[in-house]
Amino acid sequence: MSFDKNLDYDINDTAPEHKSGISSAARGEHDAIMAMFEEFKASNDERLASMGRRADVLLDEKVDRINGALDAQMKRIDALALKSARPVLETSRTRITDGAAREHKSAFDAYVRQGDSGALRMLETKAMSAGSNADGGYLVPAELEHEIGQRLAAISPIRAISSVREISGSVYKKPFMTAGPATGWVGETDARTQTASPTLDALSFPAMELYAMPAATATLLDDSAVNIDEWIASEVELTFAVQEGAAFVNGDGSNKPKGFLNYTAVANGSWSWGNLGYVASGSAGAFPGSNPSDVLVDTIYALKAGYRQNGTFVMNRKTQAAIRKFKDTGGAYLWQPPAQAGGRASLMTFPLIEAEDMPDIGANSLSIAFGDFRRGYLIVDRLGVRVLRDPYSAKPYVLFYTTKRVGGGVQDFDAIKLVKFAAS
Q: Does 28 reside within a domain?
């Protein structure tokens, strides 16, 4: 493997991340993973040194065991980071000061606890959802909608690195130029020829309905000490995040967002607008036997410089475990643990995001993505999260049919590159 360390990054540098409010537990877990990574490096170095002399099955098993422990430790760190990232909803010390918002909050609380919809019906001029076979429902308070959005950004990996736009309609259309006007250099007194008109097209991002339906007991609803907003947010966040995460990666665009892996992938040398370019690993279903990390370098530099500076690697945990063993020509490991508690792991100093919906390494799999997702992938959220109270379908439980409308798709096909595990 060979690459110029002076071009865009130095493998010994670590991208700075600034976090506030890091708990002692998170710092302890971070110290543990740093010590574990040192043990992993020592064992893997010993394994690599012995490969030319003999096969040491026990040493291979030890490296794999530490690798698995690193993955488990990263999960614990991610869980602690998520817990600290969750914003706090309204408490007795942070009361809502806006009169209309306070009135809506009070009316919504009465609806959820007692089923009293009279106050909400008066506040909302339009309670029915759009489209045929309307199922009704009421808008949640603005702070609860904001809370759900913040929690999704914290636990949904693709949402955390993509552009997010709020819309008021059912479809967002983004215009772009497929052919720009002609330009050129002329002298001060030279004649100017008429330039061609730009050719415009538009990308459409429809917002589809995503739902969750948590259940509560009458005792829970009668308990005035229970923060109902907090309960609803915590119940729907994981369901929404799991469904979103799968759709943003692999969604087919039918009643769900279109995932970036669902677009046509072509060899990067044949890239054209509307497709995503890929770099072949050079070996079917695997990294090549010699210089396996070269494909990562090729992928980084397949991206234009304007996108590369904000690049992020996306892969699942199994793929990351395989890459964790790679070293550069100077003997430094390409994968690095978080530089501090609450940070992210990095690969060649670029942030690394774990998305478990990315495919495992296999024949012709697109298991690694790299790009500026902020410019490359767009998520659209239609304003408003609705809740429909259903005390009849699952007695003695009360169901809360909670819906939000979400869409997504690639908005800049030049900003994301893939790695295809194939010979070519």
A: no
What residue spans of 270-395 are helical by DSSP H?
Answer: 294-302, 305-308, 317-323, 373-376
Q: How sure is the predictor about 66, in pLDDT bands with cuts at 50, 70 and 90?
A: confident
Q: Which two tokens stand for residue 193?
A: 């020829």
Alpha helices in 86-205 (DSSP H): 99-114, 118-123, 142-155, 157-161
Q: Per residue in 146-185, pLDDT tens?
A: 888 888 887 889 999 999 999 988 899 988 766 656 677 7
What are the backbone angles phi and psi of residue 408, rounded to the nearest 5°?
-175, 160
**Tokens 């808008």 identify what position?**
139
Strand-strand pairing, 377-382 and 163-167: parallel
CA–CA separation, 39 and 336 (whole Å): 13
* Phi, psi at 349, each rounded to 5°: 70, 0
Overall domain count for the chain = 1
For residues 92 and 73, is the Cβ–Cβ distance under 8 A?
A: no
Q: Is residue 131 part of a domain?
A: yes
- Domain-embedded: residue 184: no
For the beta carbon of residue 383, count every other beta carbon within 10 angstroms. 14
In this structure, what token pair is assigned to residue 123? 């506040």
**For residue 256, which amino acid is it?**
K
Q: At 313, which helix (H) or strand (E)?
A: strand 312-315
Q: Which domain holds residue 230?
A: 94-177+199-316+355-424
Is the pTM higher than 0.85? The answer reads: no
- Burial class of 225 by CB neighbour count within 10 A (0 to 12, 13 to 18, 19+): exposed
Calpha distance 47→61 (Å, rounded):
10
